Amino acid sequence: MEIPPPTLMKRMQNVHNHKTIENSIVFINSLIKKTNIDIINIGDNMIEQRIDELIKLIDKANYEYYTLDKPTITDQEYDRYMQELQTLEEKHPELKREDSPTSRVGGQVIDEFKKVTHELPMLSLGNVFNEDDIMAFDERIKKVISTPEYVAELKIDGLSVSLVYKNGKLVKAATRGDGVTGEDITHNARTIKSIPLTLTKPIDIEVRGEIYMSKASFNKLNENGENFANPRNAAAGSVRQLDSKIAASRNLDCFIYHLPDPEDYNIHTHNNALKFMKELGFVTNPNNKKINDIKELLTYIDYWTKERPNLPYEIDGIVIKVNNLDDQQKLGFTARNPKWATAYKFPAEEVLTKVKNIIFTVGRTGQVTPSADLEPVRVMGSIISRATLHNEDYVTTKDIRVGDIVSIKKAGDVIPEVVKVIEDRRDGSEKKFQMTKSCPICHEPLTRKEEEAAYYCLNDHCPAKKQEKLIHYTSRHAMNIEGFGDRIIEDFYNLGYLKSYEDFYTLYQHKEELQELEGFGLKSINNLLEEIENSKNNSLERLLFGLSIRHVGTKTANILAKNFKNIDNIIKAEFDDISDIKDIGPIIAKSVNEYFQNENNLKIIEKLKEHQVNMTYLKTINTEETEFTDKTFVLTGTLTRFTREEAKEKIEMLGGIVTTSVSKKTDVVIAGTEAGSKLKKAKALNITVWKEEEFINTLSKY
Ligand code: IVH
């Protein structure tokens, strides 16, 4: 037996089985021989064939190395294949295939990130933090599924990605974004070696997973002059590059953990979905475990809490998923998270620092919140100089004083918190906390509401409150006026252009002056004005949420809009009319009722009406029978004239229902370009299919 070269040994260090090594070497030797013969015999007419062959060899090597963790060829051989392929492609650019592994080296530069609407929303997970939370999660599941089986997995600390393949070829990679719309990062995903460009089967499929950077690559990157706080930020920063050469140089990786459409492949458990995805060439994390009772889960969590530092990549928790997919479907989703899964988050890192000062900030509801101004420290990779102190009770209970040494913690993206005061470190110079009794901005006296720990500035003219409300009005789930950052609103406010909601709709009168402001130009002002104009057509629930009515979040805003249909009905409603609605409790009802009895608020609404801001619930506006009424629609592929969200709204307005997966219950599938598996399924089930043109024609009748 020949002695393997050192690089082969290196590549094979993860292969524990001697038999496999022997077999591999025999296999490699045969490959080397075959390759040499092929190179000698190659003729011009065989170039295309040779390219195909090289791609197959390289894809196979990648699959064995990344997916199976069982390499069978040496680094030199791999490099030789790549070099040969690159040379052939350079000589014959017309023969370069889109899925060529040479695209891994990057080089594609894009002008901007295109928006991608996900076929199914990309949800995130709810969190649990301790044993009690885990028990409560298990109990909630058991109310629906008597004997659930779980799968526990590592929660990889990176950024989630959706990968779409057509006919086995990678065609789209997108970030999660807001869950509905993400950004197209295909050019960068192509450079990640653990993301297959070609699958082992020529199928249409979407999978989801996590792009991450290993600890080693992260350290190397920072040693070479970058200054990323942690591997997650480094991975996110690398993926958000227009030039794919940068992503290629960053050595990113990817684990796949979710199959959004398992029924399309006749898969019934999450575990089988993982197996299936692995067979297709994806890299799945090997450290998952089937769990039958919570005790096993706690042992798994304990094990990985200790083992975490020894992993070559960062994890920030453990994900627990119900294994059976029918059970998952029975459990369903909340607005944001699947009910069949949750994430246990590892306890946050704690560090010591000094409280330099305690300051007060005013929120949009007028709530005045104390925060600690800290000596900057690094916690979990980011520099922290501020921690929330929530309210007076929180500070007095913990007895946090200016000058104290405190321990602070930060969990994930959560705002840092003060855990406790290190009393031993006091020297007597610390100053006891005193809650401010007046607004730090407008200096009006504050009011502490009954049974609440918080103090409020009740001055409706308080500039801080007003600015915060304006910021909220433009936010994504409210009126969704893109282009207004906090700073722009602050500046426009201070310059006198923007004092109340109605001023958004007269901003166009100041167009000339605004475009003279630093950082602005005609294009950005025009964009802003167009966004403002579009916001007039929003459905009522967005306005209700945007008005900053206490206790009215997106869910309540939706319920109110759906039930009352227009704002006049809400204004007319008595307390009982509101509290009678399912899911609206007395506290919300009181707050809504009070808001709409207040003269000032009614004036604001009148002004907005004058500017033609829509005040009706648009989703069920058409009560007449239409071709959409009570029919179930599925949207697939790319529509050219609407976003997914717009098409959905239109269908719902005309009485239709939009669902995400095709089944016997689907009436019509609306297929845009590049429609894939859903269209196939619709045809198989003999379901009516409308092309975009037909959809537009039908819409135009109403
Ligand atoms: S499952 C619908 N599994 O954690 C379920 N997520 O906090 C989709 N993550 O957005 C998520 N490792 O970016 C799942 N093994 C894993 C994961 C994982 C990391 C991320 C993912 C998700 C976030 C939720």
Short descriptors:
26 helices, alpha+beta, 702 residues, 37% helix, binds 2-(butylsulfanyl)adenosine, 7-stranded antiparallel sheet, 5-stranded mixed sheet, 22 strands, disordered N terminus
What's the topology here?
Layout (H helix, E strand, L loop, with lengths): L5 H6 L6 H24 L5 H21 L7 H17 L23 E3 L9 E2 L2 H12 L7 E7 L2 E8 L2 E7 L5 E3 L2 H4 L15 E9 L1 H9 L7 H9 L4 H6 L2 E7 L11 H10 L9 E3 L2 H14 L7 E8 L2 H7 L9 E5 L3 E14 L4 E13 L2 E7 L3 H7 L6 E6 L6 E5 L24 E3 L6 E3 L5 H12 L11 H9 L16 H4 L7 H14 L4 H7 L7 H11 L2 H6 L2 H5 L6 H10 L3 H12 L21 E5 L7 H10 L3 E3 L8 E4 L5 H8 L3 E4 H9 L2
Parallel strand pairs: 2-11, 19-20, 19-21, 21-22
Antiparallel strand pairs: 1-6, 3-9, 3-10, 4-5, 4-7, 7-8, 10-11, 12-13, 12-15, 13-14, 13-18, 15-16, 17-18
The chain binds 2-(butylsulfanyl)adenosine (IVH).
Listed once per kind, the bound small molecules are: 2-(butylsulfanyl)adenosine
Radius of gyration: 29 Å
- Class computed from helices, strands and strand pairing: alpha+beta
| Total strands | 22
Poorly predicted residue ranges: 1-42
Q: Number of helical runs?
A: 26
Shape: globular
Q: Average pLDDT, to the nearest integer?
A: 88
Beta-strand residue percentage:
15-25%
> How far apart are the first and last residues' alpha carbons, in Å?
79 Å
Bin the helical content: 25-40%
What does this structure look like?
- By secondary structure, the protein is of the alpha+beta class.
- It is 37% helix and 18% strand.
- The chain has 26 helices and 22 strands.
- Strand 12 (349-362) and strand 13 (367-379) form a beta hairpin.
- The chain is globular and about 85 Å long.
- Residues 123-125, 153, 155-156, 160, 210, 257-258, 319, 338, 341, 343 line the site of 2-(butylsulfanyl)adenosine.
